[in-house]
């Protein structure tokens, strides 16, 4: 069974909108940065993927906003795979406010794998690394 990875981000003034909380669109950047961090921890930095001409293109993103994050909050971003198919994978994300552990956001991101611009099966070594973070939906809360 896989595990969840975690990274953190501190909310800065440029993340805040006119309502005084993190702008909804900013969460997409937080999650993109988290996925990049997680792939790096698995041994597949963007430069390693680029050297292999492998790209991951998002095809779908869902976000469920639960409560606002505010200036100087430290956010814990968790990520794991809930689906690893032949040519695509789906990340599950959760963002919590550090300290009180209140859920800020839950979401998913599905990506397709390309090599030299062509849709491909997820390369075997990358799939194997991704399996370290694989927790099927029906096992998440067990």
Secondary-structure topology with pairs:
Blueprint: E1 5-10, H1 26-41, H2 46-51, E2 54-65, E3 74-84, E4 88-97, E5 103-115, E6 118-119, H3 124-130
Proportion of beta-strand residues: 35-45%
- Report the top-level CATH class: Alpha Beta
- What pattern of helices and strands is seen along the backbone? EHHEEEEEH
Mean pLDDT equals: 94
* Total of DSSP H or I helical runs spanning 4+ residues: 3
- C-alpha Rg (nearest Å): 16 Å
Domain count: 1
Helix fraction bin: 10-25%
Query: Which descriptor suits the 3D outline?
Result: globular
Biggest sheet features: 6 strands, antiparallel
CATH topology description: Thiol Ester Dehydrase, Chain A
Low-confidence region ranges:
none
Description:
The chain is built from three helices and six strands; from the N terminus they run E-H-H-E-E-E-E-E-H. It has helices at residues 26-41, 46-51, 124-130; strands spanning 5-10, 54-65, 74-84, 88-97, 103-115, 118-119. The protein has a single domain, classed as Thiol Ester Dehydrase, Chain A (Roll). Helix content is 20%, strand content 38%. The N and C termini lie close together (11 Å). Strands 1, 2, 3, 4, 5 and 6 form a six-stranded antiparallel sheet that branches. Strand 3 (74-84) and strand 4 form a beta hairpin. The chain is of the alpha+beta class and 142 residues long.
């Amino acid at each position: 069974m896989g595990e969840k990875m975690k990274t953190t981000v501190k909310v800065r003034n440029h993340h805040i909108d006119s309502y005084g909380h993190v702008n909804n669109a900013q969460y997409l950047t937080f999650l993109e940065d988290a996925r990049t961090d997680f792939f790096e921890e698995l041994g597949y930095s963007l430069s390693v993927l680029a050297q292999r001409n492998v790209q991951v293109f998002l095809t779908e993103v869902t976000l469920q906003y639960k409560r606002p994050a505010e200036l100087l909050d430290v956010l814990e971003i968790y990520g794991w795979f809930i689906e690893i198919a032949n040519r695509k994978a789906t990340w599950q994300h959760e963002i919590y406010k550090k300290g009180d552990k209140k859920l800020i956001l839950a979401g998913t991101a599905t990506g397709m794998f390309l090599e030299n611009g062509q849709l491909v099966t997820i390369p075997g070594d990358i799939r194997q690394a991704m399996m370290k973070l694989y927790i099927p939906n029906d096992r998440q809360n067990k």
